Each structure stands twice: as structure tokens, then as C-alpha cells.
């Protein structure tokens, strides 16, 4: 049998400076694409073998796009045209600044420059009960699980005469009023209107409730108040029940209890309420900032180091314009990755590093068909179909890979004209931890 | 917590005759599409909520198509336009002819006419060791697991200095020279030539061996000897090692041993060697034919019953022209489904049943880019690019759903011009039963 000790990172020896990049997200790939293999050896490590286009993840969860449409294999992005680039699909277990090495599951590797671009993971704020019972929406497997869960709830609702149970199967509570929560709620509302009545002719979908719960006083808190207001109006017009200033206290898999005592029976709690930086052992815990972010200077160097950098969501770069760091979206990661590539080349040439400055291209969120909001630079806010087209254009433009652009665009056009959501397959028997009845049921279903 | 006893089939009472169809494959859907809801109540039961287009399954396993492209949600196919049609995603546990009912995981249901269209499942001929260690290719989850396995083998081969282990990771043994085996071998050979060298610049893919093993004396035994010969020549030209008259004796997950003693070290044994009918408890075991098929008369009635029918792969209909039954492909199932719909209407009208007669439209198999074989009616055999275009046309024509046709066609064109295989994502940590090292590795990878 294959043994872990038979595996090793197998990175060729080199006389060039070795840049080790942990993470193949927006920051990591933009850095690696700009680092010339003639000057550096570049090693990228990621647990997954693909780059995910997370702004479209909610589409996978709501049966609008296939998983493969929003992900691109890293080896395809960095093919033989990238000289001296080495990808390994391995988890990094620690950083060892004293020896200038990192440790992985299958051995150590020395670095000259280390870039931590690990991004974020779901944050349950220490509430293990919620972690156990809710559906996060952060990874491709999360989205596929949530898709199966939602579809299975409809199927079960169609197979019960117990009215209370049916209602709890038809209640979907989305916690977190950021872009993921808003876009998921909007997509589910469209599905309720255009797809589900055809799928389940006997079922009364006026009883299906979509709740969007946000702790602050408005949805999309990072956007302008105008856009928040417009978004909430769009959502409510689509029949989403928006609850702001509402915090979740507990969720046992059956009943969500809010601070203040209000309760909703639901089988599906989507957790889009928070993320925390995916930090690594070896960098002192004391320096970690709010949200699990590493404090970096304007050159992306982590406090206390000159050869360890953090970029993207895991980096907390405070500046005059952004005293609390940059928003946790793709653009700062992309720009920091590209900027750091230039700085590493400057380092090699003995030149001074240049400070990073974020160019805000604006932000966008989609609520539904022809309904979107956009905050553009210069305090311009847009809504409706113009923002919707802007959203479509930007997302397809930034999507990695010609094939993916084609697939997403053709799906979009198809959906626009037919109102369909084509990928409503339950392809995996998702078993929620602790849900013994479903577990037994799915096992019996799958038995051969 | 949700309890199974809270669920029930929930099928409305009816005064019309109730047709219960078990299975949403080619036979089941073609039958249901032709049964008018004005005359019958139609209930379809399937463990999955989708119809799979299995002739393209090998494409999912070899990263050519996304899973969603070859499957169509049954509820989408049978929407509100189908009057009095009821789908339930539930496993049938037995047939009870004495009471004219079936039993499911969540309750019983009476029928007037029962149609068993359950198709086949992988057959390991009682060899539990092979069942445990090999990779079948029969379901969507099988294909996704095999895709992950193959990609993980390449990744591991790239991360070891142990030459014997690397070779065993680069050996892929496909057992079964039918269409699935041939098409998988061809697709892997193309991947080796056009995709993998770019993905793994340092790896020597001349060392990757693709074995295709068949027990009989030629590949594609149901096709003409000319097509078999052409297919083997194509495969060998593409570098596939074809071993006919070779039977597998054992496979422990590391070493496959053939009858006669020859051995090959491999981490990946693809099992495409046999299927058996997915029979149900309640129909007498004694009548079951070779390959787990129910004997049916020319009206598709199972021996001994007038109200229980079997169609497609699970049915063994012997006729003068087909003394051993029909080939286990889509066409007999499609035609029997359509024919049975007519017969059920005749039954209702008090007319005599009409015997089924199979119209052979020919058979096709694809080996690679512009390489295919076709046996047409009238003993015409085709090869090369003409057969390839025929294959493409037929498969896209029969593919369910406009969206799927579009996705598959655009994938195909994209691949034809770029040689790419876009969906090489490892999206699930497949753990082979018993492979503790991989299990530990994957768990550690996935740890949060």
C-alpha cells in the first residue's frame, strides 16, 4: 500500500531564488503569472488542484452553473509555458522562519521568499453547534452539498403530510447579508418563481420562505447606503424576508434562535456570515489581527519579516485611505499579487520596494434577473439592468479560461431566455453530521 | 430530527389505471413520455433525481465533460406539461405481486401496471476483492471518483522518487473491451499525448501504460469483426496495450494477477468488465436469466405475469433474430419503452397487444479524435473520420435537453480545436476502501 513516506515534494534544486506561494487563489495566481521563471524558481502549494472563481460560487449552490464552470485546473493555467514553475497539491502544516523552510504533509521545503496567499475560511465565531449543523458556502464541495440539500428538502417536502415538517423543509435561512448571502437569496427567489412550480406541480411554493439575516443595520454593508437600500428593495420585491440587526444565537439543525428569542424552524441554515484568515502555525499568534489577518506593511511584508509576505484576504494592510484594511474581495488580492511580483523583481535588482496602492474599480452585486447594484469610483451608484449587464461583463471578463467564459456565458444566455436552472442534480448523498435519519435513508438509497 | 416515518410517497388517489415505472433510464423515460396523463396516472421512482446519458459517462471520467452535461433532472423532463405524472426519488425495496403493490423505503404503493426498468449495475462476478479495490464506471459518482483517482495518481507520481511506486501509479488497467473500456482507453491515450505533458513538464509520460484487457478474442465483441480489428489497430496506434483472451484472477489494490499468472502493478484498475440486471426482491429468483435479466415475452410481460413488465437492459426478450436477447445498449430500451406505451393504451382500449420488434439502427464506438467505428444495418462498416462524425451526431442528437446538447457540442468543438480536456478538477477526496494511507492523507489535506 502507498505510504506517505514514499511521497516527497520533489522540487528540483536551483541556484535561482525560490519563491514559495501558499495558495492558488486570486492573489497567488496573479503573482505567479508575473514572476519570470528565468529569474525565480516558483513553487505553488494548494490543497486543491484548481483555482476557484468564488464570486460565482453561489451559482453552483443554486443549480445555475456546474462546478467545473467556475474552476480552472492550476496545472492548465501554469503549463509548460511557465518555466521553472512547480505546483504541488499539498497542505502546508507550518512555516518555520528560523530555518527559512515550510513544512508540508510530505516534507519540508526551503524558501528565499515566502508568500502566504491562503485567503479565508468560514468563521463560526467559535459556535461549534452552528458549525456542525449549518451549510457554509466557501468551497466547491460546500456549494454542491448545499445544492443537494436544498433539492432534497423540496423532495422531502413533497413526501410528507406533516405540515410542520413540510414548513421547516421549505424555510431557508441565509445568515449574512454580504454579497454571498444576497446573491444566494436572490437566486433562490428566482428559482422559487420560475423553476420550482414546474418541478413540483402539486406543491404550494407561496409557503416557501427565504430569510436573509444580517447583524448590521443594512445588507451589503461594504457598499454604499444607496446600494444597500436598493438591494433590500429588490430582495423584498422578490419575496425575500430581510431581517437586519438580527444575530443568530443558536441552531440545532431544526430551530434557529435569534438573539432576542425569535425562532424559525428550518432544515437549512446557510452560513455566509463570516470568514477568518486561514493562518498557519509558525507565524506568531500575537500579531494576528481581527478576522485572522496578518498585519503587513505597504510592501506586503508581514510584521517582523522581510522575506515573508501576505497578500489578499489574509493580509491586513492599513493605509490612510483604508484604515481597516481593504475589502475582502478579489480586486485587492489581484492587485497585490501583481504588485508583489514587481517588488520581488526590484528586490532581485537591488532596487527599493514600492508601496502598494489600491485602485478601487468599484463593487457590484447581483440580486436577480436584470437586477443588480454597482458602486463605481466617484460615488456613482447604478441599479437595475445597467448594473446587471456590468456585473455580467465584469464576471465573465475576469473568469479564468476561455472555455469557462464560454460555458458561463452560454449558461447565462440560456437561463436569461428560458428562466431555467439546468444543473439541479442531487449527485451526492450529503449527510449532515448528526442527522442520523437522513444518514440511514441515504445509505439505504445507495445500497447496492 | 427528521424521521423516515414522517415521509410517505404521497401519491394522489386516482380512478385511472396507475402505471408505476421503476427507473428513469432510457426505457423508463421513453415509456413515460408517451403515456397520456388523461388516460393513466404515471408514477416514476428512481434513486437518483436525474436521467443519465450513460454513453458519455467515460467522458466525465476522463475530464472531457462536466457531470452536469450528461444528466438531466427528471423533474425538468417531466414538468407541469405532463398531467398526472409523479416522480419520487426513492429506492424500491420489493415487488409484491400478490397484493399488486411495491414497497419502498417510505411506504407501499399499489399499481395496475408495473414496469421494471431498473437497468443494470456493475457485476464483479462474486469477486469481493475486485469489488473492494477496483473503480467501476457505471454511475456519475463512479466517473467523478475515477477522474479524481487518475489525477491524484499523476500528482503522486510527480511526488515520489520511488521508481516502482511511480510506475504503479502510471499504470492504468482497464478491464473489459466493450464500448466503455475502449472509449476510456482511447480518451486516456489522447490525454497522455495532448494534455499531460503540458501539465507535468518534468514527467516522462512514455512510462505511462494504458492496458485494455478483454476476456474474449477481440475488443468490442458485439460489433462486427471488421470493426473490432479496426478498433484494436486504432488503439494500438495510440499506444494502448490491448490484451485479448485475458481474464483477471485477482486484484488487491496493488497488483492485478491474470489467469495464467502474469501480473501488473497498478493503483488503478477500471472495472468495465460486466454488468448484471438490477433485479428486485419479490419476482421469483428461479426465472432470472443469465446476467440477471427477467425473461419477457414479445409484449415485455415478465414470465408468469400479465401486469408486470420489464424493458431495456433488465429484460431478456428472446426472438428468432435475437435468440440471446438484445444488445445492452440504449436503443432496445428506447424502442421497448415507446412500444410498451402503445401496448398499455391498447390494453386500456381492450385491443390485442402487439409484439415488439427491434429495429437495429447500427452501433458506434469512438476511439479518439477523428477515429471511430460504426456497424450500420446491411453489414456496412465505417471507420475513421466519417464514423467519428456519425458518432458525434448521434450522441448529440440523442442527448436529452437543449442545454445539454449545447454544452456537449461546445465542449467538443473546443476540445477538437485545442486538444484540451477542461474539467480536470479533483473535487472530492476519494478514499478507496482499505487504502489507509490515502485516507489519512486526504483527511489531513481536508482538515480545517
UniProtKB/TrEMBL annotation, chains A, B:
Question: Which Gene3D superfamilies has this protein been placed in?
Answer: 3.50.50.100
SUPFAM superfamilies reported in the protein's UniProt record: FAD/NAD(P)-binding domain
Give the GO molecular function terms. Answer: NADH dehydrogenase (quinone) (non-electrogenic) activity
Please indicate if the UniProt record lists Amino-acid biosynthesis as a keyword.
no
EC number(s) given by UniProt: 1.6.5.9
Domain External alternative NADH-ubiquinone oxidoreductase-like C-terminal per the UniProt entry, residue ranges: 361-417
Q: Does the keyword Transmembrane helix apply?
A: yes
What reaction(s) does this enzyme catalyze? a quinone + NADH + H(+) = a quinol + NAD(+)
Mark the transmembrane ranges.
Answer: 380-400
InterPro entries associated with the record: FAD/NAD-bd_sf, FAD/NAD-binding_dom, NDH-2, NDH2-like_C
Ranges of residues in domain FAD/NAD(P)-binding: 18-337
Which keywords belong to this entry? FAD, Flavoprotein, Membrane, NAD, Oxidoreductase, Transit peptide, Transmembrane, Transmembrane helix
Protein origin, superkingdom: Bacteria
Give the family, as the similarity comment puts it: Belongs to the NADH dehydrogenase family.
Q: What is this protein called?
A: NADH:ubiquinone reductase (non-electrogenic)
* Species of the source: Siphonobacter curvatus
Amino acid at each position: 500500500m502507498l505510504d506517505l513516506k514514499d511521497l516527497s515534494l520533489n522540487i528540483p534544486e536551483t541556484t535561482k531564488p525560490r519563491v514559495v506561494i501558499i495558495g492558488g487563489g486570486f492573489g497567488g495566481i496573479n503573482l505567479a503569472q508575473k514572476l519570470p521563471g528565468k529569474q525565480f524558481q516558483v513553487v505553488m502549494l494548494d490543497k486543491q488542484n484548481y483555482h476557484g472563481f468564488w464570486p460565482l460560487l453561489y451559482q453552483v449552490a443554486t443549480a445555475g452553473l456546474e462546478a467545473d464552470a467556475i474552476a480552472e485546473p492550476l496545472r492548465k493555467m501554469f503549463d509548460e509555458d511557465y518555466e521553472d514553475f512547480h505546483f504541488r497539491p499539498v497542505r502546508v502544516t507550518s512555516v518555520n522562519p528560523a530555518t527559512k523552510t515550510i513544512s508540508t504533509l510530505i516534507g519540508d521545503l526551503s524558501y528565499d521568499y515566502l508568500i502566504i496567499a491562503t485567503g479565508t475560511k468560514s468563521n463560526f465565531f467559535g459556535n461549534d453547534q452552528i458549525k456542525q449543523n449549518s451549510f457554509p458556502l466557501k468551497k466547491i464541495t460546500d456549494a454542491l452539498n448545499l445544492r443537494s440539500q436544498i433539492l432534497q428538502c423540496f423532495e422531502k417536502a413533497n413526501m410528507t403530510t406533516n405540515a410542520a415538517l413540510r414548513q421547516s423543509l421549505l424555510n431557508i435561512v441565509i445568515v449574512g447579508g454580504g454579497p454571498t448571502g444576497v446573491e444566494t437569496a436572490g437566486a433562490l427567489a428566482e428559482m422559487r418563481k420560475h423553476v420550482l412550480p414546474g418541478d413540483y406541480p402539486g406543491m404550494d411554493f407561496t409557503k416557501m420562505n427565504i430569510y436573509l439575516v444580517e447583524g448590521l443595520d443594512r445588507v451589503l454593508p461594504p457598499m454604499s447606503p444607496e446600494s444597500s437600500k436598493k438591494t433590500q428593495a429588490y430582495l423584498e420585491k422578490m419575496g425575500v424576508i430581510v431581517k437586519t440587526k438580527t444575530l443568530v444565537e443558536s441552531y440545532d439543525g431544526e430551530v434557529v434562535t435569534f438573539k432576542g428569542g425569535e425562532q424559525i424552524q428550518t432544515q437549512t441554515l446557510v452560513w455566509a456570515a463570516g470568514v477568518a484568515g486561514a493562518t498557519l502555525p509558525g507565524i506568531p499568534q500575537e500579531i494576528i489581527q481581527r478576522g485572522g489577518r496578518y498585519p503587513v506593511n505597504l510592501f506586503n511584508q508581514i510584521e517582523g519579516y522581510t522575506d515573508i509576505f501576505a497578500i489578499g484576504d489574509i493580509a491586513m494592510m492599513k493605509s490612510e485611505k483604508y484604515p481597516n484594511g481593504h475589502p475582502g474581495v478579489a480586486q485587492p488580492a489581484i492587485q497585490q499579487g501583481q504588485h508583489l511580483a514587481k517588488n520581488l523583481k526590484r528586490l532581485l535588482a537591488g532596487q527599493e520596494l514600492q508601496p502598494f496602492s489600491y485602485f478601487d474599480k468599484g463593487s457590484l452585486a447581483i440580486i436577480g434577473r436584470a437586477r443588480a447594484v454597482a458602486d463605481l469610483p466617484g460615488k456613482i451608484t447604478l441599479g437595475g439592468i445597467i448594473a446587471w449587464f456590468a456585473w455580467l461583463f465584469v464576471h465573465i471578463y475576469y473568469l479564468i479560461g476561455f472555455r469557462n467564459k464560454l460555458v458561463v456565458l452560454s449558461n447565462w444566455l440560456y437561463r436569461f431566455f428560458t428562466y431555467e436552472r439546468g444543473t439541479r442534480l442531487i449527485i451526492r448523498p450529503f449527510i449532515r453530521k448528526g442527522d442520523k435519519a437522513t444518514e440511514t435513508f441515504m445509505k439505504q438509497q445507495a445500497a447496492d
